[in-house]
């Protein structure tokens, strides 16, 4: 008895991203993998009585999006239990304070107000500590800035965390103080923000996390995202993902990037002999990550030259940003993980931060040379010619935060200057010089929508139309590759996903228009009609 496909996708314009056969009408799928490609008539002929026939009705389809650096675990609790404060919700400081006052009045006693994705550049600036205190009515409050590196705390939050007016700054962090009075402004940076984050997360429940993760998966599938690599995954999320996989609730393929922030977690993976690739097609270990660099839009990322534009009251002047590890310590951590067979990823945003990450990677390679190592610098925004040459020479992957371009690009221009955009996310030059540069959203720092990022990569413009350096524009095909084939390759999953070829997973996003045929100014409007994960229809518009 011959085997028949479980499903056949028919009557489409399927862009395979396989140079050998770039476009087909139909795919046949067995066991979640593509077993044949060709015309609608050819694939229909393979179908049997139990084969599901999926008519794409002439729509354009692409491989499922691989978002190679995001934070679904953190987003899950925020979407379930925090207040969204992005510019579409908050357009002014008065509006922010009104939301805080209304929510705090309804909170149960002892519950924190927690908000996320505040962008002060587009929402009227930071409120003062006095304004926060007045609006919150004595409730402890913490608001995480959109970049995830800075936050706002009120006086009740400082008191709840035992941070008195004379408290010293924690290592690799800062409580901003007014330059005239020395009093807290409410703005806290890096490890100082983590003090308040930890307190807020103390009220998390497993039910909140589970409910939130299902909402995150629904949102991913709505955008055609079939695989996500979870950056800085802590042990709690690793356990949660395993439970979801056991219960068949992991609807988006998930890659674990083990968090170097959690004391002893990377060391436990090394001791257990767990290497990159451990797992299966639903849940797999991708690598390990440390975050020594910060935020350009929040004016903390490390650059060799000082920030331009108006300083935030309380920030150092001149300001060249900050780094969050000692160099020797980071190099030792990276070397141990690299020797153990774990793919090393280190965040670097500004040119000084990227150099810092490359120093650690170079030390790891000197201790344990590997030809095809694929170690990654995460975000890798300001890639000057000198930095680019180091990346090329070391064979490092530029894991590019393309999601920043659309939403945070205006702040990058304001904080670094228009001339700097020539080397910010320079994808045209990277491609021409053969440097692999997958793209990612870093959600919930930015929207998970891949098409606003693709729009920005092709048109080199922000959400207000500001110029990000037109000379670094790339084609639609090149931008899409950054979110499919290169994304999968950067996690050593190119044999599994990223293109629609025989033997690979049948992860497909069906679009409402052809991104290769429309005006490039309309790329941001592309929407998903249907998403298939292993031929199972997981989303329908």
Give a structural overview.
This protein is of the alpha/beta class and 541 residues long. The chain has a domain at 75-201: Diaminopimelate Epimerase, Chain A, domain 1 (Roll), CATH 3.10.310.70. Helix content is 33%, strand content 21%. The chain is built from 17 helices and 23 strands. The chain has helices at residues 40-46, 72-81, 93-106, 129-136, 155-160, 191-201, 206-222, 235-246, 265-272, 327-339, 351-367, 385-394, 403-416, 427-432, 450-459, 476-482, 485-490; strands spanning 7-10, 13-15, 23-24, 26-30, 33-38, 52-55, 60-63, 65-70, 83-84, 113-118, 141-145, 150-153, 173-177, 184-190, 225-233, 253-259, 283-290, 344-348, 376-379, 397-400, 508-511, 528-533, 536-540. The strands form four sheets. It has a seven-stranded parallel beta sheet. The protein has a six-stranded mixed beta sheet with strand order 3-2-7-21-22-23, covered by helices on one side. It has a six-stranded mixed beta sheet with strand order 9-10-11-12-14-13, sandwiched between helices. Helix 9 links the parallel strand 16 (253-259) and strand 17. Helix 11 packs parallel to helix 12 (385-394). It is globular, with a radius of gyration of 23 Å. The two termini are 37 Å apart. The model has no long low-confidence stretch (mean pLDDT 96).
